Prior knowledge:
- The protein is an alpha+beta fold.
- The protein has one domain (4-48).
- The chain is built from 2 helices and 3 strands.
- Strand 1 (4-7) and strand 2 form a beta hairpin.
- It is globular, with a radius of gyration of 10 Å.
- The chain starts with a strand and ends with a strand.
- Bound molecules: zinc ion.
- Zinc ion (ZN) binds at residues 8, 10, 12, 28, 32-33.
Amino acid sequence: xxxxxxxxxxxxxxxxxxxxxxxxxxxxxxxxxxxxxxxxxxxxxxxxxx
Length: 50
Ligand SMILES: [Zn+2]
């Protein structure tokens, strides 16, 4: 599973495989933005990482 990167509009950056990104970003948006993202919403934000 290739690693991907997600850059939140607030400056938060998460890297990892799909499972790591979902955990990291769901936790981030819950804590910082008081939002709930589904797995599909998180993965839709992911960009390939070289
Ligand atoms: Zn953020």
